[in-house]
Amino acid sequence: MSVVTHKASGWSVGTGKPLAVMAGLNVLEDEALALEVGTELKRICARLGLPYVFKASWDKANRSSIKSYRGPGIEGLKVLASVKAKLGVPIVTDLHEPHQAEPVAEVADILQLPAFLVRQTDLVIATAEAAAKHSALIQAKKAQFMAPWDAKNILSKIAEVAPDVGVILCERGVSFGYNNLIVDMLAIPEMKKLGAPVTIDATHAVQLPGADPRTGGASTGGRRDGVAIIAKSAVAAGADGVFLEFHTDPDKALCDAPSCLALSEAESLLSTLKTLHEAVN
Questions:
Q1: How far apart are CA 166 and CA 145, in angstroms?
Q2: From 59, 109, 240, 256, active-site residue
Q3: What's the CATH number where 40 sits?
Q4: Half-sphere exposure of 78 (CA within 13 A, CB side)
Q5: CA quadruple 223, 172, 61, 54: dihedral positive or negative?
């Protein structure tokens, strides 16, 4: 479907719709920070007329080091439920194992399949079944090792289990040599040919996997200055939505700090992205 809509909230993404925004924290740190970030992003998107979804992970299961901060774990779903209720906005969050699909779907309006796990059939099936049961959407991140046209297999796998569930494809870069990612902007129109809306995860697209000089490679590095460049380029290439991570003090973010944007920069960037999206469409 070139347009998907979350029925309960009315949030939509796709052809002919305003630029969709999924934005928030990389990972939950505490509820107060989540509410602060979410409140400001909701305000900005309301002023700009952009459909907004709050995003944050409750567990980051694919860290470089066992000592890396992962988040509050399953208890974080209670925090997301509270943020959802207090802000009155849809929630997107990821999951990593099939047994997590049902509890996540009880809270989240968009279930996210992580890039590293998007070909894990049991996880895809469980996510599709839970999304169908709870009338949720799915965002599937294209893996760093996949060609854009191979995303058709993600769509077909979900459709075999839950044909009525709306699916969003997300571009987040492709592995390029060692400790590096690149984003081929031609991948965006290629994935749109498959009939699904396409978003850009501009934050994770600037990661330098396993190459954070602060920890000697025990965590992921990043190029914060590149986030806006990737986001603007992707919207110009036809992306239907953006996936961005902010923090009140990015250098102190507990996860992926080098790729995180300052919350104070959000309004300027989203305003620019809206203008680009309207010009392209």
A1: 24
A2: 256
A3: 3.20.20.70
A4: 5
A5: positive
CA pseudo-torsion sign 37, 26, 127, 231: positive
Total of domains in the chain? 1
Domain range enclosing 273? 3-280
Report the 10 Å Cβ neighbour count for 177.
Answer: 7
**Does residue 256 carry a catalytic annotation?**
yes
pLDDT tens digits, residue range 198-222? 999 999 888 776 545 554 544 455 6
Q: Catalytic one among 60, 192, 232, 274?
A: 60
Distance CA 55, CA 241 (A): 13
CA dihedral (96, 100, 101, 104) positive or negative: negative
Q: Which of 26, 59, 84, 142 is catalytic?
A: 26
Model confidence over 30-65: pLDDT tens digits?
A: 999 999 999 999 999 999 999 999 999 999 887 667
Count the neighbouring beta carbons within 10 Å of the beta carbon of residue 7.
Answer: 11
Distance of alpha carbon 75 from alpha carbon 58, whole angstroms = 8
Threshold 0.85, pTM exceeds: yes
CB 70 within 8 A of CB 57: no
User: Are 11 and 109 spatial neighbours (Cβ–Cβ below 8 Å)?
Assistant: yes
> Exposed e or buried b for every residue in 238-270, given b needs 16+ CB within 10 A?
bbbbbbbbbbeebeebbbbbbbbbebeebbebb
Amino acid found at 134 = H
Residue 113 contacts residue 137 (beta carbons within 8 Å)? no
How is residue 248 annotated by DSSP? Answer: S
